[in-house]
Amino acid sequence: MSAPILEIRDLSVGYQTERGYLQALRNVSFTVPEGKIIGIVGESGCGKSTLISSIIRLLAPNASIGNGAILFKGQDLLGLSPGDMRFLRGNEISMVFQDPMTSLNPVLTIGRQMADVQHRSGASYIGKRSRSLMMLERVGIPDPASQLGRYPHHLSGGMRQRVAIAMALMTEPSLLIADEPTTALDATLEVQIIARLRELQRDFGCSILFISHHLGVIAELCDEVIVMYAGEVCESGSTREVFLGPRHPYTQRLLECDPARIPQRTRHLPVIEGSLPDLVDVPRGCIFRERCAHSMARCATERPGLSAGLHLSACHLPDLAS
Amino acid sequence: MGKFVFRRILASLLVLWLAVSLLFGMIRMVPGDPASVMLGPKATPALKAELAQRMGLDRPLVVQLGMFYAGLARGDLGVDPFSNREVSDIVFEQLPFTLALVLAAIGGASLLGIPLGCFSAIRRNSLLDRLTGVMSVAFIAIPSFVVALYLLLWLAVKWRWFPAMGAGEAGNYPDQARHLVLPAIALGLGWVGYIARLVRASMLEVMEENHIRTARAFGLPERTVVVSYALRIALLPTVTILGLGIGSMLSGALFAEIVFSRPGIGKLLYEAVLSRNYPVVMGSVLATTGFFVLCTLIADTVNAVLDPRLRESPGN
Amino acid sequence: MSIVPAVIRSTFTALRKDPLGMAGFVLVSLMLFLTVFAAWLAPHDPLEVDVANRLSGPSLEHWLGTDQLGRDVLSRVLYGGQVALKVALVAISAAMAAGLVLGMMAGFGPRWLDRILVISFDTVRSFPTIMFALAIIALTGPSLNTVIGVIIITSIPVYARVVRTQTQALRERDFILAERAMGASTARILRDHVMPNIAAPLFILASMDVPAVVGMEAGLSFLGLGVNPPTPSWGSILNDGYSYLRNSPWPIIAGGLPLIAVTLGFTFFGESLRDIFDPKLRGKDQGGK
Q1: Using 50, 70 and 90 to split pLDDT, how confident is the model at B43?
Q2: What residue spans define the domains of chain C?
Q3: What architecture is the A6-92+173-245 domain classified under in CATH?
């Protein structure tokens, strides 16, 4: 088996806020193998954004990385100088952001922005333009030549997101990070974009780190999935295993509450009772303890580590397979 | 885009028309008949009658108003009773000097202010940022003629670094440039800080926006991100404000011209006021007001050109 | 209005944290003191002529020297402040009052009235201010009262616009609609709800307007179109100084200093007030004041 493209080891990241030090990520570890699509699923506040920002190192000024390593192709990104890090961005590691309305510069044409992304290629203006056209075709944009001269506000949301994907894949990165790319789009568009992404991944062979809170999309697209809660990884494994046989109570509740899974008509959508814990004052023991139906005494004192093996779960309960 | 410009032109014309009518009305409000007021105590009845006839003062008011507008449309601002020259000639003779001054002042202020503002935004709360902040507030506040006087006192009279009077030899550009320096500094000093503040505030807002994060995520060099991506958007509101600020600059230009004895519309107007030369007074005020309205219009149009979002109707 | 002492106290606490604002306040207070007590503080009669000693530099007798007629510059500067004070008080109060009324009319009244008023404001403001002043002075002759009048006319739109915006915004708010539903008259709403909300922004605007007003009077007096000689005004002192620039720089130096002090003081103080009362007005301009 080839080396993983991305390996997160024991990463802890926090923010200095008025109330204190907010521990957004605590000892997060996982790997992204080469050529695979890994999904990260979790509700708002689970630390997904902090994770991505840490990988590409575009964190807010009040953020600090506690300990841990981010190994990209074996090299620790945290040890890189800003210049070297910048070299990787848009080159080996690309991103697609969530909101296509605001992620593109409103006063520059699509063509100009796509050319700017190729700033390292050394190609001529014509060379860059033809590559842009080719990429636009690959993502399924009709009449690419005329789109190059347009501004982002001329395009629909779905088109803008396709352009974003085209821009991200243009430099043939080894790792593509997609931060909830379809959340702002409606369902039919979502299906199309996901299908296109899968196709492109097969063609380009890059690894994708796909963040979403939409379980259906994760199930459809991702080979493996990582479930995060409040800054920690609580479960990870192949999508099939995790979704069909969730081991962590949080994952179980997540799946139960997924509207797509509800067996019969009901007036009230199920929710997970309780709310996110305060990450400035992190409670001892298991982070999910407050909202877990199965919590025991041990959960209050001892923080569960990830179990060994391929299907990992951070829980004191041995096996919850029903 | 055409529709937008058209509507703006209409609005400007409306305001201009009202301003002009106001001026016209003012002159008729003077106690006594305009002819004797203009000619002063030495006016003989014959002179008065001639002037009255020339200015059409014997006709009904409405006709006078009509004549006035007709004249304006022709570019006829009346005749200077003292020198017998067309007012429009006199005004347009002096206008280039004032324009040169205003442009030099704004140009210099922008050249200094934009980079300062940009830098302040990138290095927030650094020493330079704080200093710029204080300086900008300070220099906006102080009346420009005080600055002009001090500059004249020290740099021109005491140390003789720059000339104290006039616009320089005709056709001799370096000489004229030397004569421009002090007045332009006096006019533009307050603006450096003002522009820096505007750019800084604008940049801070733009740098927070998502597309800047995208640009960084694609590894674009910081210089490109700041200048081509952020500054371009941040400059838009600055341009509009500059256009509007030209009006206040014209007032300042008047003082600069008087302090440095420079030719220009300001000096022309001032001397006309002292000699009660109404046609020239009116002509100068009209010309400057028209210029001011034109600048506002241009500023809005430039804004629309730079920001493609403004060109279309909203709700795309 | 028992809330006023508390407001003043908390303002001072906030001011103490802001060195520039504090400096502004100190300058303003100093200038006010010097001006109000000019009669007691001035060493000489500002109109007393002493041609033998004309255009002399600073000395024990004349701390800031003498002007071209031998008058004591320091005393003239002190009394000149009274002119500035008078102009500022009268012009700003009048413009504020008129602006308040007109702004409320525009904001609360019928659409057509609003349109007319706004166009009038725009028209008055479409003239470069000094040029407008000169045009009017050309017609009516120079005098301090004319200057005050012109300042009032050109300032009214500034106040009126702020009042209008605030009034319009408040007009749509729920609690106003509730009051209307209970039958409150427009006058009552204006008095009880609109005015308290406007008081702070207006006061801050006035504070930031003082430099402009004082500057305008000084400028027009400098042009010889303001106060009538021999009355001292900072502008007229500068005018005299300008004519005799090459003989003695002191009248110019002395005339400019109080202007700088007043404009800087009120601007720093006003900005500080604005930050204290409504940081939203300042936008993203954090730090670097």
Answers
A1: low
A2: 3-288
A3: 3-Layer(aba) Sandwich (3.40)
